[in-house]
Amino acid sequence: MPIRLLSSEVASQIAAGEVIERPASVVKELLENALDAGARSITITIEEAGKKLIEVADDGSGIPAEELELAVARHATSKLSRSEDLFSISTLGFRGEALASIGSVSRLTITSRVQAQPEGARLRVEGGVAGGLIKVGTTVGTTVRVEDLFYNVPARLKFLKSDVTERRAIDMLVTRYALAYPEKRFKLSDGKNVILQTTGDGDRRAILAALYGVDVAKQMLEIGSEEQGSSISGFISPTSLTRSNRREITFFINGRWVHDVSLNTALLQAYHTLLMVGRYPLTTLFLKIPAAEVDVNVHPAKAEVRFRDQEKIFSFVQRSARKTLLAYSPIPNVAPSLWGTTRTMPAEQPRHTGLDWLIGHDEKLSVDRAEPSGDQRLETDSQPPVSTQSTYSSAGTQEPTNASQNASIPLLRLIGQIGATYLVAEGPDGLYLVDQHAAHERVLFEKLMTQHALKNIPSQSLLTLVAVTLPPHSTHLLITQLPFLQHFGFDVEEFGPNTFQVRAMPALFMGSDPSTALRALVEDFEEDESPLQNEIEAKLAARVCKRMAVKAGQALSQEEQRALLTELEACDSPRTCPHGRPTMIHLSVDMLERQFGRRGAR
Ligand code: ADP
Ligand code: MG
Fold first, then answer.
1. For the chain, what percentages of helix, strand and coil (3-state, to nearest 5) are there?
2. Pairwise CA distance, residues 347 & 342, whole Å
3. Is 79 touching ligand 1 by the criterion CB < 6 Å?
4. Cα angle value 135/137/141 (rounded, 5°)
């Protein structure tokens, strides 16, 4: 084929491809325009996850009628004129590409009015071609309507994820921007329901509740520090609050949401040794950096930036986060308390320390294991650990093992409970320490999965119905999972916006808090999981069981302790919890004898 210039239509679709990837990218560009225009109130309406409609209405400065056609032209912007200005950008937009890009892959209508003009004007653009300008009566501000996104780029449409996922991306985006701009009023609705509404009163924690739910919002730690003209504010999760992916780690730099690997790393370093392997914090951090120190013009969708002094910013983020974490949780390293803590990393530490104290050095252990009689029971079974292999590499679980999945445990005689966390038991060959939480998780999981396999999960009605309010994105997920929940013995009904009523739950979980179970089901839910798949059911079951299981720090009666051991003995894979962590540690008679120096003596 000979070389020729692309038609402007093709060229603009190519350009649009870089800026507009999915419905959420449209929302992001339109939000940024509204914010740049000084809007105090922004109303977003979407239909069919933004595929059918995205409308963003603001009360900002508006666009003069005579400039409207220019606004949708490529490389047309009111925010930048000289190239030097690129290094002192204080607006979110500057590339002059968003409206043109959106206009070339959708049916776009802009209606706008400025204060100085008595009426407004409206312009329609379809597939990149602008129609005539008409005059309309309207209030000051701008409304951009984007219909049938990608209608002329079917290939792009095919790349979009499910409505649930696309919708979630929009919910998350808007909520995060609302959090970044708490003094602005945001309203997001899907035509039927209001998904998010903020008051603009500047209260970030209230918006945080919309993002994560009230419980989580309450636990989030506020961060704030300043250094050499830069500042950081926002929220980070305590070490007890984690997710299985990095998706909840977000940064805003100078009011713009950006993805930056080095910032993520800096943050994770702040959590170093405080989290289990494979667990990640939740953060929403707002960095303010002098404009001259960051280059925002390195990514077509402005999603990435470059720093003049990356080291400096990196260290600033890392130190600020670490300081906050330590200020709120002085536990790590120094004699941590076992009481009342849940199974999170700081609480894990005593487990290691305690062991070292009990059995001395790892070295000795391996000697013990090297012997032919080396005790297999020390080892975890070969279930793939979800996340924690290395953190849990305390005594006895260090080696990968070939022990069969079904390796049983011996009959145990209960001695008692220590630290309200471990059960101590005697077996035919020594002492067993059982982690009550992990053990109970295993017991619940196997019962639930057995009942599930038999298609018979006994469900029990609650005497008092429990209403649970979830954050908007979870709400949507939960609705898609209602049939699945029923399957699992939950009877849950929609009960107003973002609120559900739990009427019954699996009899197995009776006595536990139904709202905890419900939250566990949705919080870590991966974007594209389809609840119909078997392994996902197992994963969800494991997640609920984890929440429902007795916690470390919970005192159990003698009967409860004994029952737990008996039930654990009856399990198919009693040696690990459903997430692959060990339920018990064995100290063999042999090893005890070595430790007490009895062996050599005899
Ligand atoms: P950019 O934001 O990079 O300048 P856009 O294509 O997003 O490019 O917008 C082009 C121009 O249209 C902006 O520079 C601004 O002058 C005007 N504009 C767009 N949206 C709005 C809005 N909501 N309110 C006021 N002016 C707007
Ligand atoms: Mg813009």
1. 40, 20, 40
2. 7
3. yes
4. 100
SS3 (DSSP) at 437: helix
Q: How far apart are CA 348 and CA 342, in angstroms?
A: 9
Can you tell me whether residue 214 is helix, strand or coil? helix
The pLDDT of residue 115 is: 96
Residues 436, 443: Cα–Cα separation, whole Å? 10
Task: Please give the pLDDT value at position 61.
Answer: 97
CA–CA separation, 113 and 140 (whole Å): 5
**Closest alpha carbon to 147 in 112, 106, 178:** 106
pLDDT digit string, tens, across residues 359-377: 222 322 222 333 333 333 3
In angstroms, the CA 223 to CA 218 distance is: 14
Which ligand 1 atom is the nearest neighbour of the CA of 58?
23
Q: Give the Å distance between the CA of 78 and the centre of ligand 1.
A: 7
Neighbours of 6 (CB within 10 A): 10
- For residue 60, the ligand 1 atom closest to its alpha carbon is 24
User: CB count, 10 Å around CB of 35?
Assistant: 21
Report how far residue 310's alpha carbon sits from residue 231's, in angstroms, rounded to the nearest whole number.
Answer: 15
pLDDT for 146-182, tens place per residue? 999 999 998 889 889 989 889 989 998 999 999 999 9
Phi-psi region of 31 (alpha: psi -120 to 50; beta: other; left: phi over 0): alpha
List the structure tokens of 361. 């050095």
Under 8 Å between Cβ of 157 and 52: no
Pairing of strands 249-253, 283-288: parallel
pLDDT at 478 > cutoff 90 = no
Least confident range from 8-17, 56-65, 197-206, 306-315: namely 8-17
Does residue 114 have its Cβ closer than 6 Å to ligand 1? no
**Eight-class DSSP state of 122:** E
Tokens of 177: 């921007």
Provide CB contacts within 8 A for 496, sequence distance 6+: none
Give distance in angstroms: CA of 77 to centre of ligand 2. 8
DSSP state of 85: G
Is the CB–ligand 1 distance for residue 96 below 6 Å? yes
For 111, the 3-state DSSP assignment is strand
